[in-house]
Specification:
mainly alpha, 268 residues, 2 domains, 89% helix
Length: 268
């Protein structure tokens, strides 16, 4: 009987120990299960993010922009082509040796050396251009130098007509890039409320990259367009001033010849 009482007492002593062990094993099992579940969720999210980011090339980003994004990229491409065409065209047409031909100036000087203003006027009519227009205005209005300035202003406007489109390209491209940036940021913030985990990060990065792509494209188009606009504007202004100065010089020569002719006619 005493042995049975001793066994029962020992069993009662070990019962709290077994309960604590069971609780500890249960807590450990629950911890392992939770960590494993988190690993599974993270692996699935990473796999989904990998699928989303596997096609995050340039054309994939453009395609995910939707109708507005594709339209913006087409507009930027059109501005790029137009800007390149205007730059090449201005390099070919806005040149001093093309507008102020040395052979033409020489023929005009030879005609004036012969004291033949009518011949010089005929040469200007036979070879139309900015210089001939300004020279004709000067020869027709020897007593009014303002006519030369008016003709020079008109020729300057005509010469700068195509160059001004470069300014339009340079100002419009960043605005389109900014519109693409706004669209990308709207999509990025919309992703924050619809996606979760690594998939959210992947979609957020895709939308932000789309916004930065359009901004970079707009600036890449605008910077050279504005730079070449200033370059060609200064070149055109210099050419116009050279033509105006040449015309005033030839007008003074004609006036001097007339005065000398009048003096020689007054001599006995």
């Amino acid at each position: 009987m005493e042995y049975r009482k001793i066994g029962k007492n020992v069993g009662r002593c070990f019962q709290p120990v077994h309960r604590r062990s069971a609780i500890m094993f249960g807590a450990l099992f629950l911890l392992i299960f939770t960590v494993g579940a988190q690993d599974v969720v993270m692996n699935e999210a990473a796999a989904q993010a990998e699928v989303l980011s596997s096609g995050d090339g340039f054309f994939s980003v453009v395609a995910r922009g939707g109708f507005l994004g594709i339209s913006l990229w087409l507009a930027l491409a059109g501005l790029s082509v137009a800007g390149t065409h205007l730059i090449v065209d201005s390099f070919l047409k806005i040149r001093a040796d093309r507008i102020i031909s040395d052979s033409f100036v020489t023929s005009i000087r030879n005609a004036l050396d012969e004291n033949d203003v009518a011949k010089a006027t005929q040469l200007c009519a036979a070879e139309p251009g900015p210089l001939s227009t300004i020279l004709s205005a000067g020869f027709s209005n020897l007593s009014d130098e303002d006519a030369v300035g008016i003709a020079a202003d008109l020729e300057s406007e005509m010469l700068m007509q195509r160059v001004n489109y470069l300014n339009v390209v340079g100002n419009l491209a960043p605005m389109l890039g900014l519109l693409g940036t706004v669209q990308g940021m709207i999509m990025a913030f919309a992703t924050l409320g619809t996606e979760a985990g690594a998939a959210k990060n992947a979609m957020l990065a895709t939308n932000i990259s789309q916004a930065l792509y359009t901004t970079a494209a707009g600036l890449i188009i605008a910077v050279p367009a504005l730079g070449f606009y200033s370059f060609f504007r200064n070149r055109a202004t210099k050419i116009i001033l050279s033509m105006e100065a040449l015309t005033l010089e030839l007008m003074k020569k004609v006036k001097r010849q007339k005065v000398e002719g009048q003096k020689s006619g007054d001599l006995p």
